[in-house]
Amino acid sequence: MQDARWLFLDLGNTLICEEAATERRIQQLVSSLERYGRRRAIEEVRDAFREASEEFAPRFIIGAIEKLIDDLECLKLIQAEARYNKELESPYEGAEQTLRTLSSRYRIGVISNQPAGTEERLTKWGLMPFISICLSSTEVGLEKPDPAIFQLALSQSGCEPAQAVMIGDRLDNDIRPARLLGWKTIRIAQGFARFQSPRDGLDEADITLANVKLLVPVFMGGLAQSS
Fold first, then answer.
1. pTM of the model
2. CA spacing 20 to 30 A to 87: which of 14, 23, 146, 224?
């Protein structure tokens, strides 16, 4: 990590905690399934999310629902009801201080699959002052793991691949595409994506951490070894 100049972070389950919103969605799914005559225990629904993650489903919610029902029409109805409450999201403990500390030495960027209004949410949480580039999929018309969104980050930052670090929770959306372009990578093992196991060497992050607060000793304490 000695050559790093830019640190690009994912948001969901990396900087921003989605636990409460995901749990609410799981509860909604249980209610919807029961209403359509497909009664499932809440642990069965959580297991379906875990399995969808382990199988690298592009959308965990869709992969989970497909495991719970096999009726296409019912699947569409339940999926439409599975609202995600973004208002329940919040930064992880220590996220602001971590960005404040890292931004004193590195430039910080965001590359995330998000709906419109990402900068507004980051501003509300007090994180935007530390972020120089914010690439949200909806707003730039590109979505991870498309390499084009990573190339856009390099173009806007003027950073070389060897000087870029991608930090995120998903092996398929964050680690693999960045490694294919020659970036360094750090996996944050949070959320359902923590159940993903590397399929080959390209899914292997350079470093795996339990949370973003541990980025501080890696980058500010001279540590650059796998945990």
1. 0.93
2. 146
Distance CA 145, CA 183 (A): 14
Q: Which of 190, 183, 182 is nearest to 210 (CA)?
A: 190
Task: Give the CA count within 13 Å in the CB-facing half-sphere of 76.
Answer: 2
CB 189 within 8 A of CB 209: yes
Specify whether the CB–CB gap between 168 and 148 falls below 8 A: no
CA distance 175 to 198: 10
The answer to whether the beta carbons of residues 153 and 160 sit under 8 Å apart is no
> So what's the pLDDT on residue 218?
95
The yes-or-no verdict on residue 222 having pLDDT over 70 is: no
Provide the 3-class DSSP secondary structure of residue 15: coil
Contact 162, 182 (CB under 8 A): yes
